[in-house]
Amino acid sequence: MTDTMTRPRACSSAVPGAPGSPPPEDVPPSPPPSGLPAPGGGDRRWPRRVAGGALVLALIAGGGTAGGVLADHYLSGRDTPSAAAVGTTAAVTEDADLAKVAAAVEPSIVTVTVDGARSSVLGSGVILTSTGLVVTNNHVIDATGTVRVRLSDGRTVPATVVAADPTHDLALVQAQGVSGLTPATFGTGDSVAVGDTVLAFGAPLGLEGTVTSGIVSATDRTVSAGDAGSGAANGGGDGSSGGDGSSGGYGSSGSGERLTGLLQTDAAINEGNSGGALVDLSGHVIGINVAIATAGGSTGNIGVGFAIPADTVTAVVKQLQSQVR
């Protein structure tokens, strides 16, 4: 199934599904606002994607978590003390597992910011080497500006873009003057199955160190995405032709891209999660967050997110590294 995705424009108050209202759209979890004005007085903006088309009906579905699955088991109709005890134990055990995975993976997640003269973009990234090589989405770093990486220990260091692959929406960023970092461990496609519990890491809406849980709800998704001008957080113009909005909006020119083989998840992913990790219960990165579906003019998560699978990420990373050696 192929979905057409575009970056969201101005918000709409129409109710999804109501007569005359626009179909739901898909937005990738891109950079969110930090709440602070960017250097030079500009506005914080986030790249994002929106999907619609054939997934319109699916986009309104809420996301379920592993906890929901356990609840179904607990209330399966076996109303005996032993059945309740088993369900409770399973829930507690999985909660403990999730906490352990989150603690183990968090040091490998960073926040990536690109501060330009007129705007600032914020996304996430995953550490590849102890010396600070980071993988993120290309749409996080494709704007001109000063790149910085904020580590999980609170340090913010300058960084440079090493290489990028717009076709797969991936890029490599090198954090400067660091060592002893914790590289993430990547899984393979063979270890991913629909129904697997996963955790999404990143900085949604600028909230660093955020972890959410859900399941792999589908695999091998194909979506088409593109940039469309959008109003800045504090501006009214939409800059739809690539320029500044008349009331302060900031727009981008609009280039399409088609992403294939994506993982779909109901783990909560929002703007700012772009480039962050989707992780399994073994603590292995199985995907890099890249897009979400949204309903109508809203940009919040509705339980349909997408991630570039680990096999694609590792292959692209190797190719990019070979180009810069």
TrEMBL record:
The chain crosses the membrane at residues 50-71. One of its GO terms (molecular function) is serine-type endopeptidase activity. Residues 1-47, 225-256 are annotated as: Disordered. GO terms for cellular component: periplasmic space. Residues 228-254 have a biased composition (Gly residues). Pfam families: Trypsin_2. Keywords: Membrane, Transmembrane, Transmembrane helix. Residues 19-36 have a biased composition (Pro residues). One of its GO terms (biological process) is protein quality control for misfolded or incompletely synthesized proteins. This is Serine protease PepD. It comes from Mangrovihabitans endophyticus.
